[in-house]
Amino acid sequence: MSSEKALRWVFFGKGGIGKSTISSAVCCELAARGHKVLRVGCDPKKDSSSGLMGHRPVVTYSELYCAGKVSEDRLIMSNEYGIDCVEAGGPEPGTGCAGRGVSLLLDYLNESGLVRRRGYDSVVYDVLGDVVCGGFAAPMRMGFADRAFIVLGVDLMSMLAANNIAKAVARYSANGVTLGGLIVNRVRKADHAPLALFSSAINSRVIGALPDDPAVVSADFAGEPVPAFSPGAPFTAAVRAAVGRMLALKSCPRPRPMSDAVFAKFKLELAARARAAGRGRAPK
Ligand SMILES: Nc1ncnc2c1ncn2[C@@H]1O[C@H](COP(=O)(O)OP(=O)(O)O)[C@@H](O)[C@H]1O
Ligand SMILES: [Mg+2]
């Protein structure tokens, strides 16, 4: 399969929420549907590609750049799943600006024209954090992403991060990026009401709901993406269904992120629900 214009998706969400796991699984599903996929890891921890590279050491753009050894052959890591991976990398913890590594890699991808030349159908960005730093917003700021997906759990911290990410998506919508929807990870039955409240508050929708699944942890240890490690796992089935919906998306509403004052009211509403549900029970 080869289309004129590559599909360009970016996954955001707070640290540890499941971005790398989910975006790796999404890459596998896209590859299974015949896409030639480039996965772009944008995290100074350089662990984005780890599950797709079988724990083999990864080379980062930042390392190659510092050593003056940047070349396509050194940068692009191939694997048995037919997915090419590149990692931005970044400075040692506690030094320098991590977002800078992302911007540098994106400049290189732009200038080298490798996405078009190599005929990728899909480019999937996996981006650290909640976009308080302009460097991590680079895929949107530099006009490299068409669709953003926010990974979140049903907890206040990840909703706060998701709201901040929605602010960045709204800010860069002039560059062509839209919010494709929310992907809820480790979802539980009781999560429905707070989730519906959050998604309608920011004018978005839930496009994927993925279960907490022990197969994910085993796949992580095995250094394999979940769909390859466990094709029949509930997590794999849920990712497959989500990718179907993501591919079928036509128009996406412009996100309406909450201001600090509106978010404070939203928290009060959740608090009232939690109290009404009673201590030790999930809010309805
Ligand atoms: N649905 C899930 N079920 C069980 N474990 C999960 C699930 N999603 C993620 N994990 C685990 O959570 C940890 C963090 O996931 P990761 O994808 O690295 O997060 P992020 O990239 O957002 O920092 C990993 O150990 C991963 O195996
Ligand atoms: Mg990650």
Tell me what you see in this structure.
The longest helix has 18 residues, at 260-277. The protein contains 12 helices and 7 strands. The model has no long low-confidence stretch (mean pLDDT 91). The protein has 284 residues and is an alpha/beta fold. The relative contact order is 0.16. The protein has one domain (7-277): P-loop containing nucleotide triphosphate hydrolases (Rossmann fold). The chain starts with 6 loop residues before the first strand and ends in a 7-residue tail after the last helix.
What are its keywords?
284 residues; alpha/beta; 7-stranded parallel sheet; 12 helices; 7 strands; globular; binds adenosine-5'-diphosphate
Number of E-type strands: 7
Bound molecules: adenosine-5'-diphosphate, magnesium ion
The CATH topology is given as Rossmann fold
Structural class: alpha/beta
- CATH class call: Alpha Beta
User: What is the terminal-to-terminal distance?
Assistant: 45 Å
Summed over residues and divided by their number, the pLDDT gives a mean of: 91
User: What does the overall shape look like?
Assistant: globular
Q: How many domain units?
A: 1
CATH superfamily: P-loop containing nucleotide triphosphate hydrolases
- Low-confidence stretches at least 5 residues in length (pLDDT < 50)? none
Number of helices: 12
> What's the Cα radius of gyration?
19 Å
Any guess at the CATH architecture?
A: 3-Layer(aba) Sandwich
- Residues in β-strands, percent: 15-25%
Q: In sequence order, what are the helices and strands, one letter per element?
A: EHEHHEHHEHEHEHEHHHH
Portion in helices: 40-55%
Summarize the biggest pleated sheet. 7 strands, parallel
The strands making up the biggest β-sheet line up spatially as: 3-2-4-1-5-6-7
